[in-house]
Give the backbone structure.
Amino acid sequence: MIRIIKSKICQSEIKALCQAHFGTMIKFVVDVAQEIVALGGDMHADAEALLLENGSKQSDLWGGNLYPWNAPENRIDYISFINIRPMENNTGMDVQDESCRARISDILQTLVLRPEENMEPLD
């Protein structure tokens, strides 16, 4: 299950995406130009492919993992194989540009989970 998110989702949707794959984590790919996110899937490449099929540009896509039950400052990691882009000065799996990380974080906070929101416990 992978969903393209264009407007704020509720906690029950976040829980369902977590439970469908990894339990307490969701893989994501953010389109920083369109300010949308693909959530879910077993691999970042699957979410990336879905966004590309729906008109996103490769250079705008960045992947990572969201841990909704963590404290806000520890909810996002910026690690994915799709982030390895030597031609764009991103030589590792981690998003290295701080301004890009900030854009990713802002988009996830707007569409998925705001810093002041705390996830309800898993059932």
In short: The chain has three helices and five strands. Residues 2-111 form one domain. Strands lie at 2-5, 26-31, 36-40, 61-66, 76-77. The chain has one domain: 2-111.
